[in-house]
């Protein structure tokens, strides 16, 4: 490796590309993510190494592997780049009307009413901003946030700690039992224990909500046959409405199934209650002004469009289905 360059400063672009290459382990993946050519990415990496006078990668290995000095360098610039991005974001959005780009991910649970209202509100408050809205599962949104492909996300809070992301709890969404409206008078506890002929219709096991439900059933010592698994709440509600079985879901999800509600009956979960939490999750460098704007509008929309109408229809949800107080 040559001696350190006489140039006085490091290029921020070099550091950002080094960070992407260290994460992806591939020049081609880094090029795809940044929109540059492979040769350009390689040129910038070599320029950084020449400037420092050290090998940061073992260039004979595939995927690319950091050298010991490269690992130390990465740890240090991760902190520095995070601070730079945060400062840049805050400066760019101190006046929200001047914001230029925002990437927001939401779970499908909110795409009927809440997300459209949020999109309209943000477009008015940030008129010159280009928006990217991504609807997906909580797992994928969290991964995209970790990879800095999104700025904010609204997700189900996972059981594990979110490490480098910032969690702002929004909604307590209790689990409830949904039966066909014409189902007989079998005790609810017997239905949940699998002691009736009505089959249990469950969420696909790759969803966070499915893991939460299964964990609670295990705690109760209940094991139900895997007759039907589905990734769509709307499909589950349609099947229950048709009398094909019963399910465990949440008030938020039930509220989306308006076309089926006349043929459904909502019941409290028997025995020990449990719930999930929806959170606004941000990257550490997301501007606080943007986070506060999204947080306030999401809370207002959830309260007006979902919580209050459903509690009027189902008063026993009062207090259980509610916004979580901000610290």
Automatic annotation (TrEMBL):
Residues 10-67 form the HTH lysR-type domain. InterPro entries: LysR_HTH_N, LysR_subst-bd, WH-like_DNA-bd_sf, WH_DNA-bd_sf. The keyword DNA-binding applies. Belongs to the LysR transcriptional regulatory family. GO terms for molecular function: DNA-binding transcription factor activity; transcription cis-regulatory region binding. This is LysR family transcriptional regulator. Keywords: DNA-binding, Transcription, Transcription regulation. It comes from the Bacteria. It comes from Gymnodinialimonas phycosphaerae. Pfam families: HTH_1, LysR_substrate.
């Amino acid at each position: 490796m040559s001696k350190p360059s006489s140039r006085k400063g490091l290029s921020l672009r070099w550091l950002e590309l080094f960070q992407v290459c260290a994460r992806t382990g591939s020049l081609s993946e880094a090029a795809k993510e940044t929109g540059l050519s492979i040769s350009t990415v390689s040129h910038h990496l070599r320029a950084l190494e020449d400037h420092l006078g050290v090998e940061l990668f073992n260039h004979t290995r595939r995927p690319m592997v950091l050298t010991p000095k490269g690992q130390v360098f990465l740890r240090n610039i991760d902190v520095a780049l995070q601070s730079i991005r945060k400062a840049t974001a805050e400066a760019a959005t101190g006046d929200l009307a001047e914001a230029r780009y925002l990437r927001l991910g939401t779970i499908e649970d909110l795409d009927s009413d809440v997300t459209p209202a949020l999109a309209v509100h943000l477009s008015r408050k940030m008129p010159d901003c280009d928006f990217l809205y991504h609807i997906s599962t909580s797992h994928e949104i969290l991964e995209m946030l970790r990879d800095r492909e999104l700025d904010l996300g609204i997700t189900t809070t996972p059981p594990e700690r979110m490490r480098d992301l910032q969690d702002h709890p929004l909604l307590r969404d209790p689990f409830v039992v949904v039966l066909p409206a014409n189902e007989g008078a079998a005790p609810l506890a017997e239905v949940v224990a699998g002691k009736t002929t009505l089959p249990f219709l469950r969420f696909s096991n790759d969803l966070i909500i499915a893991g939460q439900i299964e964990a609670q059933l295990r705690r109760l010592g209940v094991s139900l046959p895997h007759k039907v698994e589905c990734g769509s709440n709307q499909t589950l509600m349609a099947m229950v409405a048709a009398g094909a079985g019963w399910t465990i879901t949440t008030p938020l999800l039930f509220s989306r199934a308006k076309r089926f509600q006349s043929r459904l009956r909502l019941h409290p979960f028997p025995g020990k209650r449990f719930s999930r939490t929806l959170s606004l999750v941000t990257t550490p460098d997301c501007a606080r002004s943007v986070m506060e704007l999204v947080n306030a509008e999401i809370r207002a929309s959830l309260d007006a469009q979902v919580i209050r109408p459903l509690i009027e229809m189902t008063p026993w949800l009062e207090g259980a289905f509610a916004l979580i107080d901000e610290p």
